[in-house]
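Q: What would this chain look like folded?
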Amino acid sequence: MGSKNKLKRFRENETFSNVIQPERDSVLKGEFPYKGLWRKNFFKNESPIVLELGCGKGEYTVHLAKRSPEVNHIGIDIKGARFWRGAKTAVEEGLNNVGFIRTQIELITHCFAPGEVDEIWITFPDPQIKYKRTKHRLTHPNLLDAYKSVLKPEGLVHLKTDSEFLFGYTLGIVSQIGKIEYAHHNIYNNSDAPEVATAVQTFYENQFLEEKKAITYMKFTL
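A: My prediction, written as C-alpha cells:
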C-alpha cells in the first residue's frame, strides 16, 4: 500500500464516528474516555461486548456484527490503514453495533473496565515464533491475564489460526491457567466444529485454505 493511500485512509478514519484513535500517552495516563462507559456513551445500549484483537481489515468484526446485531463488536489494531476497510463498510451499511480502536493490544486494560467485555476473538495473529518476540504473542500469559481482567467471569476467548505452533503453545498455556471448551487442529475437516468458527473466512484465511493449510480453532475460559 502506497504512503498516499495510507494517508488518505488515516484521514478518512478521522471522519468515522465508529473509530477511536487515542494517543498512547493519554491512554497510559488513564484518560481513555470510554473505559467502563462503552455501553452507555459509545453504543448507547446494554448489549454484550465482543472484541476482536489484531482485527486486521476488520472482516471478522463486521461479519460478527451482521450475524449478531444484538451484540456490540469492537475491533482493535494498531494499523488503522488496515481496519479502515471494516470501519468504512460498517458506516456504509449503517452498522451501529461496530467500533474500532487504533491502539496496542497490551493497553486493553486501560481501555476497558474489569468485566466489561463478554467475549474475545483472536483471528490469525502473527505467531511470533522467534524467542525475542515471545512477549508479543497474543496468547502470552501476560496478555491472557489482561484479557481475564477485562472479561466477565467465564467469558470466552476464541483463537483461530493457521499456525500449528501457536495452537499447540496456547493449548499448553491455557490447560494450566484456564479451561479448554473446544479445540481442533483442522476445523474444516471436522463435522462437529462450531458453526461460528467456520461461517467467516477472512482474506488471509481464504489464502491459507487455497494453500491447503489446516485452520485450527479453540475456545477457552480463563
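Strands lie at 19-20, 49-53, 72-77, 98-102, 117-123, 151-161, 179-184, 216-221.
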